[in-house]
Amino acid sequence: MLKLGILDQSPIAAGETPVEAMRNTIELAKAADRWGYSRYWVSEHHDTAGLAGSSPEVLIPAIAAQTARIRVGSGGVLLPHYSPYKVAENFRVLEALYPGRIDLGIGRAPGGMPAASRALRYGRLPDPGDNFPEVLRDLAGFLRDDLPGDHPFAALAATPQVATVPDIWLLGSSDYSGFRASELGAGFSFAHFINGDGGQEVVRRYRKEFRPGPLGGRPRVNVCVIVICADSDEEAERLAKPLDLRYLLFEKGEARRPVPTLEEADRYPYSETDRLRIQRNRRRMIVGGPERVKRGLETFAESYGTDEVLVMTMTPDFASRLASYRKLAELFLRQPAG
């Protein structure tokens, strides 16, 4: 049976405050735990209007404390900005608090505009280039206490010392992260919601080239896609319009604008080129009533050869967003109890 997880960017709907967005994240996580979702990942975005999720390592324990079963993790920690030693300690603390329930999802994207990247790296040495594989190996060494003997920090322990290690995943929307995940033994989560083209081949190559390594011993795959499920195809299409406009504005360089409302989406003066862009972006989404979404998700998972899909839903208000996740649970998971 298909397993479903959630990627939550903590969107701030029109008329909401960031405080309310954070409360909604907790409420959605509690519902996902009851409904049988497999995992709940929270994102890292900086200086991005409309998204409240900037610090997954802070949000994870708040979610884990309010849930009982579901795995909770980062989708993901943007490792190039940070010390691998500090990331290891953060996630060792989380693993000590919630053993066996923590996922460390790692990304290499900037997570915001260039100014945000400079601020996150403030006081550090200039970017030395592509040292991502080296940093990943250092992170694994700190988490597993097995840095090479000639490493400058070989005698340093990441604390607290705990017996278990979070599951480690590399997140990506291209073949780069898939290659690194296969090279180092990590799980691989493909961001279809970012890149709707070619992911199936990236995942196929990951599986073919996988070798056990410092980040894990067996291949693991999930894929994240945008899903909007409503009572009917027509209602789902209506709810998807603001997200269509949001992605269109991103492509036009207006990434800092808040999430559009339904009214703004209806009033926007779309050109023919705009409509073609929206149609292309729909390759990243599955939108419809229950029957269309069920067929679409099953076909989607089969195309990737995976039994787990992460779902990201962004609608104009929390009520319709929660309802979409509930409908998915009714289609694929155990019947929601409330």
Describe the structure.
- There is one protein chain.
- The chain has helices spanning 18-35, 56-65, 84-97, 114-120, 132-144, 175-184, 199-209, 233-251, 262-267, 272-281, 290-304, 318-332; strands spanning 3-8, 39-42, 71-74, 77-78, 102-107, 167-172, 187-191, 221-229, 285-288, 308-312.
- With 338 residues, the protein is α/β, with parallel strands linked by helices.
- It has a single domain (3-226, 304-318), classed as Alpha-Beta Barrel (TIM Barrel), CATH 3.20.20.30.
- It has an eight-stranded parallel barrel with strand order 1-2-3-5-6-7-8-10, surrounded by eight helices.
- α6 packs parallel to α7.
- The model has no long low-confidence stretch (mean pLDDT 92).
Key words describing this protein structure:
alpha/beta; TIM Barrel; eight-stranded parallel barrel; 44% helix; 15% strand; globular
